[in-house]
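Structure first, sequence second, as always.
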């Protein structure tokens, strides 16, 4: 953060030339850091309250199969997951530390963005508080995920470019390229952000950026860092592209798809963040006061259009939250220097001050209260589960409210089914699961002497298939009448049932364990038939 708080002479001179109001602005390091530290402590204290999310266990398992790429992410998250699991096995808190740090970085970046846009101490703190109280931050820090790090790295790259606008120091371009190179090891979706940045600069300036030699030196370097993952995708038939249709279907089932995106964005930004983001987007696109950063507003349009067209997750745009919050905070709070221009002098300074103070205080207080209530109350105790889940939307709500549960019951039930097999059948048996969540749970939480675990679902399908000599399989399905065991094996009989009526679908509800023998085809021919990108909980 030292680089943020330093006032380079050259930078101040350029700032004074562009806008004398920003020449003496300093970063409110103490205040913004205090907001970030308090936020980090709260997130760390609550980080162990939720059980493992299925993807977290998958990332740990993927860390045992390190590769340049995976179905829907790069290698960085599996590497971090395996490192955390090795340091403190089984610790959900340790597993989530990278996500918590990413959330804290978002708070700092929101304040830093406000400073770059000429916002003084109050605007910087307001932007930081907006990020600290937005529901997205709670989601971001709740589990180890790709989007947690992707949004923080995207925001960091945007901030470095915004700082370059003011200082014109090409080392900032090199730093931004390094951040993007790291982000490419998280998700390839950062390419959409890059397209938005290029479009913004081309449309709204500063076009000088596109003429900088340092920028073009960065392009081949960043491309080289993405090449291993792209080659992995090419070798495996571009599963990342196929995942787009799967995500679109899942998103529609859980939140209503494209029509649900506005609601989802409102939920993710929260009251304070939502108001600041809308105002920030408006002033970035329309007011000359922010014309040096108009490219960020254009980049936001590109991200939103991509999310709509692809039917993707609402958090695809979360990397822009710190910048949008900051623009809105500067527009509102830097009253003598900004708000007068936005209102055209129609409102007297005294009235404006009082209105901003009253309304702003109320909005901040409500946002803080909501945020503290959410982190204090959730997840609810499982004893309060009182209804069956019948749809993806209901399952998504239960996941947010109670967390993902039932792992112990799944592991114990499958292990008991294995122990109950005749001794002759246990020799050479393998476990095959319907979902990659089940496979990851059995691999990482199961007893050390359990059979090898395989799954043809999503990323697990690329970790390997059963040996060609395998004749007996314990198949963990997601329904009592699932056709796959009979279609894939000559003999298939149910041997155990894991079915808590109020359990979590696909984990400890609706699970049938089958003893399957004699595959109908050799495994190299059967495996492609079994492979699927759909996570089917059996609803």
């Amino acid at each position: 953060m030292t680089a943020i708080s330093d006032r380079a002479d050259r930078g101040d001179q350029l700032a004074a030339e562009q806008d004398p109001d920003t020449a003496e602005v300093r970063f409110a390091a103490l205040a913004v850091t205090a907001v970030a530290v308090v936020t980090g402590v709260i997130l760390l204290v609550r980080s162990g309250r939720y059980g493992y999310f299925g993807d977290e266990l998958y990332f740990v398992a993927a860390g045992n199969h390190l590769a340049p790429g995976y179905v829907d992410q790069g290698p960085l998250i599996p590497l971090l997951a395996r490192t955390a699991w090795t340091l403190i096995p089984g610790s959900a808190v340790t597993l989530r530390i990278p996500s918590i740090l990413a959330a804290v970085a978002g708070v700092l970046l929101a304040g830093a963005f406000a400073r770059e846009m000429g916002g003084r101490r109050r605007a910087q703190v307001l932007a930081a508080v907006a990020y600290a109280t937005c529901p997205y931050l709670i989601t971001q820090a709740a589990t180890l995920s790709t989007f947690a790090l992707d949004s923080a790295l995207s925001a960091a790259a945007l901030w470095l470019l915004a700082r370059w606008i003011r200082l014109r120091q090409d080392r900032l371009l090199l730093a931004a390229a390094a951040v993007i190179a790291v982000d490419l090891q998280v998700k390839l979706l950062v390419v959409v952000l890059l397209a938005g940045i290029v479009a913004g600069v081309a449309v709204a300036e500063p076009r000088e950026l596109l003429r900088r030699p340092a920028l073009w030196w960065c392009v081949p370097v960043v491309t080289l860092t993405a090449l291993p993952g792209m080659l992995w995708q090419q070798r495996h038939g571009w599963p990342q592209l196929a995942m787009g249709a799967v995500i679109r279907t899942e998103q529609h089932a859980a939140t209503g798809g494209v029509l649900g995106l506005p609601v989802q964005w409102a939920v993710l930004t929260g009251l304070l963040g939502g108001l600041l983001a809308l105002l920030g987007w408006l002033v970035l696109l329309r007011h000359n006061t922010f014309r040096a950063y108009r490219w960020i507003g254009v980049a936001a349009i590109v991200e939103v259009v991509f999310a709509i067209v692809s039917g993707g997750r609402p958090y695809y745009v979360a990397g822009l939250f710190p910048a949008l919050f900051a623009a809105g905070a500067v527009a509102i709070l830097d009253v003598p220097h900004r708000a007068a221009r936005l209102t055209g002098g129609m409102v007297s300074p005294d009235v404006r001050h009082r209105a901003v103070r009253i309304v702003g205080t109320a909005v901040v207080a409500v946002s803080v209260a909501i945020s503290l209530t959410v982190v204090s109350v959730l997840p609810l105790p499982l004893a309060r589960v009182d209804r069956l889940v019948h749809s993806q939307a209901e399952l998504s709500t239960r996941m947010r409210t109670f967390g993902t549960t039932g792992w112990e019951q799944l592991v114990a039930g499958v292990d008991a089914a294995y122990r109950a097999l005749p001794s002759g059948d246990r020799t050479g048996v393998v476990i095959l699961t319907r979902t990659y969540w089940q496979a990851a749970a059995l691999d990482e939480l199961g007893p050390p002497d359990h059979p090898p675990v395989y799954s043809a679902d999503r990323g697990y399908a690329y970790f390997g298939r059963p040996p060609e000599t395998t004749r007996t399989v314990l198949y963990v399905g997601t329904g009592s009448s699932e056709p796959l065991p009979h279609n894939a094996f000559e003999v298939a009989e149910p041997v155990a049932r894991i079915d808590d009526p109020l359990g979590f679908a696909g984990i400890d509800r609706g699970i049938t364990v089958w003893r399957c023998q004699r595959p109908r085809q050799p495994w190299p021919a059967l495996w492609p038939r079994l492979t699927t990108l759909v996570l089917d909980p059996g609803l």
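Margin note: The chain has 24 helices and five strands.
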